[in-house]
């Protein structure tokens, strides 16, 4: 599992993320399933996608279908595990707790996928 944290999310940040994905997983083809956020369709990334079509493919979920989006299950799991009924005194405390959660679940990606797919 690969993830990044940024202060803002725009097409340039998404392009950088895709570049990092291609660099991290140079063998085979990475298929990403995405929602229809504007940054996922930005003109800025189209040339990159054409250049890396053998390494990277984006598949888009139907509009307004959060029930099909696996990451929605991840957010729910994170909320229940990290911030449910917990008072955090700072944004940094929340950030640290989220990072710990992500680091922990990244150790066993197959179990994470199994858990999230079963919830669909």
Automatic annotation (TrEMBL):
Pfam families: DDE_3
SUPFAM superfamilies: Ribonuclease H-like
Gene3D superfamilies noted in UniProt: Ribonuclease H-like superfamily/Ribonuclease H (3.30.420.10)
Boundaries of every Tc1-like transposase DDE domain copy: 6-94
GO molecular function terms listed in the Swiss-Prot or TrEMBL record: nucleic acid binding
NCBIfam families, sorted: transpos_IS630 (NF033545)
Name recorded for this polypeptide: IS630 family transposase
